[in-house]
Every structure is written in C-alpha cells, then in structure tokens.
Design goal:
Layout lengths: L11 H30 L2 H8 L5 H22 L11 E4 L5 E4 L19 H27 L4 H8 L2 H7 L10 H17 L11 H24 L5 H23 L8 H28 L2 H6 L4 H13 L5 H18 L11
Antiparallel strand pairs: 1-2
Helix pairs in contact: 1-10, 2-10, 3-9, 3-10, 4-8, 4-9, 5-8, 6-8, 7-13
C-alpha cells in the first residue's frame, strides 16, 4: 500500500504577516533617517565649541579621521567585508548581430555573490576617494578653519546654507528635475536660516581669508554631494567609510603638519569631543548621509541642511544658555516649512475606472 504523507506548510497569512511587519519597520526607519541625521549632524558645532580650544582645526580633523579608520578597519576585517569588484566580461549580442564584450560593475552589496568574480573595481574606489575628500576634508576643514580664523559661526552657517540652492541649480547633472514648489521651499529654507543666525552674522573686521574658506566649503559639500550621487551612490557602507575617511586622512594629516603646530591639550572636553566626532558624526551621521544620498534626490537631501542651524541653536540654548530670540524662533518655523515643501511627496490621484 502506498503511504500518503501530509506535509505541513506555514499558513500563508502568517508569512504575509511577517513580510508586512518587516516592510512596516523598514518604512518607519526610512521615515526616521532624515531626522536622526539632522539631530546628529547638528552636534558638529557643539563639538567644535569643545574641541577647537584644545586643538587646531586640521589637527582635530586628522585625529577624527584617523580614529574613524581605527574603529572601522577591525569591523571591516571581522565581518569579512568584500571589496567592490567588476564582474567578468560578458558576451552580448549587439543589434547588428556581432558580439560585444561589456564589463558590468558588481555593487558592493552583492560583491560576495558568485557572479562578482572580476578584479577589484578601482574606478569605484577612486570615485569614493574623491567624494570623501570633498565632503570630509575640504568641507569640514574649510568650515573649521574659517571659524578658527575669525569667521562668526552664523556667517559660516549662512554661506554654507546656500548649498541646497546650489545643489538644486546643478541637479540636472545627476538627472534630477526640481519643481517650482521645491524652488520655493529652497528659498524659504534659506530665508529661515538667515533669520536664525541674523544676530550672529557680524562681518566687521573679518578678512577675505575666512570668507574664502566658507565659500570653499560651500563648493566642496555641493560638488561632493552631486559627485557621489552621480558616480558612486551604491556601495557597502563599511568599504565606503574606509575609503572616504582614508582619503580625507591622507589629505588632512599632511596639511595639518605643514600649516599647524599639531599641539593638542588632552583633557576631558577634548577626549569627549573626539570620541563623539568619531562614533556619532563620522560613523553614525555620515552613514545616514550616504544612505540618504543613495535613496533620495540630491536636492531633497541637501535641503535637510537647512534644519541644522535651527537645531544647533536649540542645543546651544539648552546646553550653554545662549539666547534664543523670537526672530530665531520664527526662522526655525520658516526653515522647517521650506524643507517640508522640498521633501513632500506628491502622489497623483488614481484614475477612475470607466
């Protein structure tokens, strides 16, 4: 006699429930990412307040970048992080009938798969190094050096606050259209930043040098954001962090050696600022920024920078008792409104069935 065995399968509803729950958590995380980024990124000026009296700008940044490498390198080695590789040459039939050989780059997330057997993708690594140098070394180095040499923090925030507008202006480089509503939001956000820092923008007695450093930082963060979106938006975060901060360290350390004394006063404030810079800013906030650039339009990501001065102003009010004027409070509302106009998703109504 033949035996009939009943094979039990998990109920379809249970599997669908797990999938729905996972999708829900992913949606919540995607929605929370921009706000976590703004909150952590805004602590950068607080770190500068503690770190700058104890170390010169490029020296502090070299320590920060070197510390990031010391943390991330063991993580990358222990987790078996694969380097990005180019897939083997694949024969394709061209429209004319002849066979062409094309090389396709394997995304780093899939570099451990069977088809990622080609050589290391040095082109992608070079792109990561360029964007890392612009976003980390030049942008941060310029802002910190400008403040160290006399530029008010408000002026630095205002000049760098032009970045979302500049990014939108060149957004077509990465194939991103900017709507009229988004342009209105960008202008509104910039006006809000101006109101927040209005009482901290003093230009009397400031030389050309600090202003030029602010402008250099503006150009660097704009170019770095667009460059990464265009050439290297997709990569393993562990590899990307190592390459980008390695490049920034390679640029910043010699610059500090030549331009500064590299003297450091090691105290609790300096150590705390450095540890926070490495773990929260360089690893936490930058990883979030990479994910946001990968998933969203460059203009939308850049518009989040409008929320940094208002958030920093609130932190300074809570931590240091700095004045929070009604004008600054109004600027926060205007900046938040501007960002909302830029990042709001408009959905087209579904067409009715005939």
């Amino acid at each position: 006699m033949s035996e009939h065995r009943t094979v039990s399968h998990p109920p379809a509803n249970a599997a669908n429930g797990h999938a729905t729950a996972g999708a829900g958590r992913a949606a919540i995380w995607r929605a929370a990412m921009p706000w976590w980024f703004v909150l952590i990124w805004s602590t950068g000026f607080i770190v500068a307040k503690y770190g700058m009296p104890n170390a010169e700008p490029l020296t502090f940044l070299a320590l920060r970048f070197g510390g990031t490498l010391l943390v991330m390198l063991p993580i990358a080695l222990l987790t078996g992080t694969p380097w990005p590789r180019r897939r083997a040459m694949v024969g394709q039939v061209a429209p004319g009938g002849r066979t062409e050989l094309t090389a396709r780059t394997a995304l780093t997330e899939r570099a451990g798969s069977a088809d990622a057997v080609g050589p290391i993708d040095w082109t992608l690594i070079a792109h990561l190094a360029v964007s890392g140098t612009l976003i980390q070394a030049v942008y941060l180095g310029g802002v910190w050096a400008a403040i160290k040499h006399g530029a008010p923090a408000g002026l630095a925030a205002l000049v760098v606050g032009i970045q979302p507008l500049l990014t939108a202006l060149f957004a077509r480089v990465v194939g991103e259209p900017v709507s009229r509503r988004q342009w209105l939001g960008l202008l509104c956000g910039f006006a809000g930043v101006g109101l927040v820092v209005a009482n901290k923008v003093g230009v009397r007695g400031i030389g050309v040098g600090p202003v030029a450093l602010c402008v250099l930082s503006l150009l660097a963060i704009t170019a770095g954001t667009l460059y990464q979106k265009r050439f290297c938006a997709h990569f393993d975060l562990r590899v990307g962090t190592l390459v980008q901060f390695g490049a920034a360290f390679a640029v910043t350390l010699p610059a500090a050696w030549v331009l500064e004394t590299m003297q450091v006063r090691w105290n609790a404030q300096m150590i705390g600022a450095l540890v926070w810079s490495v773990l929260a800013l360089s690893i936490g906030a930058i990883s979030l920024l990479f994910l946001l650039i990968r998933q969203g339009a460059a203009t939308k990501v850049s518009s989040l920078m409008y929320l940094t001065p208002p958030t920093t102003a609130v932190m300074a009010w809570l931590l240091f008792g700095e004045t929070l004027s009604p004008l600054s409070a109004a600027g926060m509302v205007v900046a938040a409104l501007g960002v909302a106009l830029v990042i709001e998703r408009r959905t087209m109504p579904a067409a009715s069935s005939p």
